[in-house]
Amino acid sequence: MNIKFNNVSKAFNNQLAIDSLNLEIENGEFIALLGPSGCGKSTTLMMLAGLYKPTAGEIYFGSVVVNDLEPKERNIGMVFQSYALYPHLTVLENIAFPLKQQKVPKKERLRRAEEVAELVHLQEFLQRWPSQLSGGQQQRVAIARALVKKPDLLLLDEPMSNLDTRLKNNMRNEVCRLQKQLKITTVLVTHDQEEAMIMADRVAILDAGKIQQFDPPEKLFNKPKNLFVAHFMGNPPMNFLEGRLVNEGNQQVVVADDWRYAFTKEKALPEKYTGKQVKLGIRAHQLAITQESKDALPAKLLALEYLGREVIIRAAIGKQNVCVFVENMVANNLPEHFYLYPDRAGVHVFDEETGENLSL
Amino acid sequence: MKRWFLPYLMLSPFLILVVMFYVIPAFITVMLAFTDMNYAMEWRFAGLVNFEKIFTDPFLPVIVWNTCKYVGGTLFFNVVFGFVLALLSTYYIQHEKSGIFFRALWMLPRISPPVVYVLLFLWFFAPGQYGLLNALSAIFLGVEPQNWLSEYAMLIVILANGFVGASFGMIIFSSAIRAIPQDIFRAAKVDGATEFAITKEIILPLMKWPVMFVSVWQLLSLLTSFEYILLLTGGGPFLDTEVWSLYSYHRAFVGFEFGYGAALALVMVFTAFFLTALMLKLFDFNRMIKSSRID
Amino acid sequence: MNMVVKKTPPVARDSFLKTLQKKWHLLLAYLLLTIFSLPIGLMFLWLFLTSISTHTIAGVIPAGFTLEHWSFLWGPVEVGGRVLPSIWQATWNTILFAGGLTIFEVIISTMAGYTLSRMNFPGRKLMLRSVLILHAFPGVLLLIAIFYVLNALGLIDTLWGVMLVKVALQIPLSIYIIKGFFDEVSWDIEWAALVDGCNRLTVWYQVILPQVKPGIAAISIFSFIAGWSEFLLLFTFIFSEHNNTLAIYLLAIIGDFRVVNYGLLAAAALFYIFPVLLFFLFTQKFLMKMNMGGGKQV
């Protein structure tokens, strides 16, 4: 089932949480809604679930407008951050609960519940109470319960955030496997960019109730549409250098008090941007240390952070701090002053006012 | 339609009760106050007669004075005793089980049926040689039996209500004291404060709001409740322990002057409304009102 | 392997006096509390001892064991030349009154409490406000008018009528308490149930109610104790002897307590208070936490 948001807004007490959202999810696709807390990603999910009703706009499931449909009329499955297992029901009863609501005869619903339980490797725990299970097992029950009624849409609300790192990796693989196997359209809400990148086919980045970019993970990382996305994606975050875009002779240059950066012909920006205040965005691994000043930025060493194989160098270019990834060897006998040579392909130019990426 | 149908359906039994036993009685009280209804239960408009009667009633000065003594005395006893009990059982005695034991003991008067509780008091202060207090004072002081209930009626009324009421303050003050972070006490001790100084300089100032809450809440209940007095002395001897609300009750259900009784009650209704509003304002009951998270 | 011989280091032992000096606050606290609490403890102890004693020494200390005072449980008892009616009728009435009250309270308050805690509807704020106001407002003030209402409904002098009044007076407190329990139930569970195919009514019944069982237990016990102990309403609105409850029954014996033997009175009082004490023993910890808003009585 494909899903479409058409200019959907949601307000709480006249405060806009979602501001004219447009989004299309294809049948069988796994997408993630990613953003900082309060960005509106959970609200979006709740509207898909039917727990919140949109203030304006339409949500389509296939060709049907579902705005006023109650959750139970939508045939969806949902996994919550707290798993939300019913503490007074056993594992089997928990999984069979949605079928009981559909008035499926007892025998059949138990059979189907057991089937799904097997899918998530819970066969041995069917008679236990939720409180007797570990976090990972509870998670599996929640997933089984969401899948048992063969939903058209699976909603995952921060499902991994209560698990430890190792379990998290396991569960991610498993959820992806199930999703591909059952071909369910799936929406994941998370604030963990790593999770979103690993699991989802496409990721929608939300901020302040608006979608900032909706693209496959690789594109988000390499071609951020604006400052927010560039800043949000990647760890350490992208380095930003403020300057002014000017023409020097026939060359386009960004200048600041302590440094200048010249564009190559093919990377040059349209004329109309000349004179703008801009930010150069360069990722930490796309800066190289050199002793030559040509086409490079003068830097002063501030600190070293050893991560094992790699080292993060914190340095200052003019008044702005940057980080650089280098190999252990390079870092060992670094002089106080050196130059940083940016990889031309990795330099993004953002309009300081609008945040838009001008170099795309 | 759908939006309010289910909620009001689920609220309806509650709302019916409220209408039957709060709203309609409130209106009836107002209306009764302007009639001279008696045992014949006939509505006869009487204008302001009942209210004129309040001002000319020869018993009323005594009753007002009794009400002041009763409310003031009990309130004082409740707050002071409640605080002392809370302080001793939560701060000075850190051993939790002992603290709980004493607090539970003090809950006994509150949870005992009033009839049994009053029976114990009647016994204790009974006249003649079988009264416990008389027997005790005969043994230890060798004095003659006294009729305590007629000589010290008001004092006994205050004591009986006080023992019931002290537990209310005790519970609220206890939880307020427990809410003070232990580090503050440790810091004060490191700074050289004595236990007495800690009580005076740290605990007492933090009790301001709990004391206010307990005082207003108990003021409200003391002004309007008379169950224990009714059982203990019935307002007597003569009118020695007759307080406003009991007087209203007596006038209505013993004298069958429903009109006059209602007028007396109406005065208290207004007082109670004022105190209730004050309390809701002072103690921000609004924080209880959270929005639902399902549309 | 090395044998390690531990030498006990000399421990500085406080002398008794020094301990006393250090702990005198604590001792004083215990002493004061004991003195304050002694009257209460003694009264109840004395109640118990008197009910099983034949006589008292010096009018104070009960002595000599007997069960004679409890004979009202199995046979007619004569007091002051008058035969007391059987206590079982009154007991049954009390059970009926307290039990009925409890059932009403639980049903009405779980419905209203859930609605107020977790539903959005026009007028919700007003409803919440009125619960709070009614909770603080002393309903006894309306006794005279309630008499009129009961009379008009033909419910005067019936246990059912008085029970309804008691439910009404008690319900704001019950709603207030149970609403607190509903507030604590996680929204995730309710959402999950809605997604799993429930509507608001089945969510309430199948999923949320089982989560607030402790709250239901609390209001049940509160209501039962309140109903069991009720005096004023029954005293005011009940006239027929066959409708008497234990409170009124006991009061009738106290009526001429100067001629009555204390033993019978003590036994009857104990019989009456026993269920309350039993409940209290099991729930006192909880009661003491919950009593915050329960100060309608003094």
Give a structural overview:
The complex is a heterotrimer of chains A (360), B (295) and C (298). Chain A is an alpha+beta fold and 360 residues long. Chain A folds into two domains: 3-232, 3-Layer(aba) Sandwich (Rossmann fold), CATH 3.40.50.300; 239-351, Nucleic acid-binding proteins (OB fold (Dihydrolipoamide Acetyltransferase, E2P)). Chain A has helices at residues 41-49, 91-101, 106-119, 135-147, 165-182, 193-199, 217-222, 227-232, 328-332, and strands at residues 3-12, 15-25, 30-34, 56-61, 64-65, 76-79, 153-157, 185-190, 202-207, 210-215, 239-248, 251-255, 260-262, 277-282, 287-290, 297-306, 310-317, 320-327, 337-342, 348-351. In chain A, a hairpin with a 4-residue loop joins strand 12 (251-255) and strand 13 (260-262). Chain B is mostly helical and 295 residues long. The radius of gyration of chain B is 24 Å and the shape is globular. Chain B has 14 helices and no strands. The longest helix of chain B has 33 residues, at 60-92. Chain B has a domain at 76-209: MetI-like (MetI-like fold), CATH 1.10.3720.10. Chain C has 298 residues and is mainly alpha-helical. Chain C has two domains: 41-71 and 255-293, no CATH class; 88-254, MetI-like (MetI-like fold), CATH 1.10.3720.10. Chain C has helices spanning 16-51, 87-118, 124-136, 143-153, 159-184, 187-195, 200-211, 213-229, 232-237, 246-254, 262-290; strands at residues 53-57, 61-65, 78-79, 82-83. In chain C, strand 1 and strand 2 form a beta hairpin. The termini of chain C are far apart. The interface between A and C is medium-sized, with 27 and 16 residues.
List the helices and strands and how they pair.
The complex is a heterotrimer of chains A (360), B (295) and C (298).
Chain A: E1 3-12, E2 15-25, E3 30-34, H1 41-49, E4 56-61, E5 64-65, E6 76-79, H2 91-101, H3 106-119, H4 135-147, E7 153-157, H5 165-182, E8 185-190, H6 193-199, E9 202-207, E10 210-215, H7 217-222, H8 227-232, E11 239-248, E12 251-255, E13 260-262, E14 277-282, E15 287-290, E16 297-306, E17 310-317, E18 320-327, H9 328-332, E19 337-342, E20 348-351
Parallel strand pairs in A: 3-8, 3-9, 6-7, 7-8
Antiparallel strand pairs in A: 1-2, 1-4, 4-5, 9-10, 11-12, 11-14, 12-13, 14-20, 15-19, 16-17, 16-19, 17-18
Helix pairs in contact in A: 2-3, 2-4, 3-4
Chain B: H1 2-33, H2 49-56, H3 60-92, H4 96-111, H5 114-124, H6 132-140, H7 148-151, H8 153-178, H9 182-190, H10 195-206, H11 208-224, H12 227-232, H13 244-253, H14 258-282
Chain C: H1 16-51, E1 53-57, E2 61-65, E3 78-79, E4 82-83, H2 87-118, H3 124-136, H4 143-153, H5 159-184, H6 187-195, H7 200-211, H8 213-229, H9 232-237, H10 246-254, H11 262-290
Antiparallel strand pairs in C: 1-2, 3-4
Helix pairs in contact in C: 1-11, 2-5, 2-8, 2-10, 3-5, 5-8, 6-7, 8-11, 10-11
